[in-house]
Amino acid sequence: HLVARAEAAPADKMFMKQGQVWTFSEMIHSLLISSANDAAVALAERAGGSIEGFQPMFAATAAGLGMADNPVLHDPAGLDGPDGVDGGNLVSARDLAIAARALLANPSLAAIVATTVYYFEGPDNVNHRLTNHNNAFLTTYPGAIGVKTGSTSRAGACLIAAARRDGRTMLAVVLDGANPTQTAKQLLVEGFSPPVSNESTADRLPPVPSAAERPTAPQAAVPNPAPADH
After folding, report:
1. pLDDT, tens digit, for every residue of 38-65?
2. pLDDT tens-digit readout, 191-220
3. pTM of the predicted model, to two decimals?
């Protein structure tokens, strides 16, 4: 059942209401395709019992993935500044690349971020049509497979873009971009241009955890009821 804190999340959101029961599939599609902040809060509360309970899980997952630039992870929706929980998040481009690569290693999540349009009938009795916020990249760049747009008061317009060509996957992370999609395309062109044998080995990202090591997502309706004063 949805609780008040998720309902009160700022837009972008699905306008979920307290007491509604949304499935995990509906929530994760809403989060990854439409950047729904209420879905992010609800999923965090389902996983950790509350946002405060989720925060140490958030940090432990980041550490397990090898994020090493001292990420500050307070807000499950990725907000920062006055909009974010406890001042919100602070994450480097390199650590975002690590997180995105781990997401793409999960076939279910990878399929979602590559989806251009998703339909479902929600518990609000609305026939929802989710249009991927990343369609400007997904529908125009050859080999595009994801990943996620974002925008916050401190980070500006952001994009993690991924493409696959000839068995080779490339990631571009753009923060505070004037035109993140175009910048990401330019970075990917530069990335794919040299052969694999000429790629730099100066800074290798840590290995992606195996499937057994990656956290599993809750499969029940989300989130659990919370205390009335939460």
Report:
1. 999 999 999 999 999 999 999 999 999 9
2. 999 888 888 888 888 999 876 555 544 433
3. 0.87
